Amino acid sequence: MTWLVTGGAGYIGAHIVSAMRETGEEVVVLDDLSSGDRQRIPGVPFVTGSVLDADLVARTVADHGVHGVVHVAAKKQVEESVRRPLYYYRENVEGLRTLLEAATGAGVGSLIFSSSAAVYGAPDVDVVHEDTDCRPVNPYGTTKLVGERMVEEVATATGLRYVNLRYFNVAGSVDPALTDRGVSNLVPMVFQQLEHKRPPRIFGDDYATPDGTCIRDFIHVGDVASAHVAAARALDEGGVDALTANIGRGEGVSVREMVATIREVTGTADSEWAEPTIEPRRTGDPARVVASADAIRAALGWRARYGVRDMVESAWAGWTSR
């Protein structure tokens, strides 16, 4: 039996592919390489293309004996989604619709969907549980929430078994070759500034938080990957049929605190030029989003293993090895 991983040549996708292969799973990757890199996944059967191509999805399922799909492929930049909402609806919503239609039509019985903490929007709670009201504040979050609903309703109609995993803020690397090469996430964004001896940028310091900056639940990409392995195993063994769960550590870290940790790890803590500058808030950024991971622990026996410093040190090792 084989798992199809869409977006498997990307930063998160490649970590998932690596973790699944380490546990003996057969994997095939479908990726349009718009942000992925095939060199991240050597030796893995690879199909170049988009999930918007229904015929390609159906052929891939048939040719590789696919029984389950891990759907990671998506556009994920909040700020871009605000500027280009229709693009995000096409890529994230229509892409998933096309994938579901082709996959279920070809007999695929299991799906793991990469969702996001962005579905919650700006919750007025200290810790977010899966039953917290979902009120996205940007198009990206809306597309992920629509995706979850689509998966659930297709499951009701077809018997598809599924796990929706809501990622919180992913960082770090298990292998320098798999590191995040983009600069849309906080950690690599700060790395890029420091590498060029420019001050890190903090977007807004007037939020209703202890130090005025946004608070997030940072989760190591290796933990995200292990959660997918646990979900795949549970679906294969009949341990779950329908699950929506957060992937987080349950600990909030402010942007200012995270920048301070990055400066310590990179050796720039005492450099005056590396003092962060404050810029206006970005549209669509909530003040605080921290996960409860009780549901995934109870259903899959999963828990996060890595801390914040692990994330930063491993990410820096990958960044400097480029």
UniProtKB/TrEMBL annotation:
Known EC number: 5.1.3.2
Pathway entry: Carbohydrate metabolism; galactose metabolism
Family: Belongs to the NAD(P)-dependent epimerase/dehydratase family.
Pfam families named in the record: Epimerase (PF01370)
UniProt keyword terms in alphabetical order: Carbohydrate metabolism, Isomerase, NAD
Protein name: UDP-glucose 4-epimerase
Residues spanning the membrane: none
One of the record's GO molecular function terms: UDP-glucose 4-epimerase activity
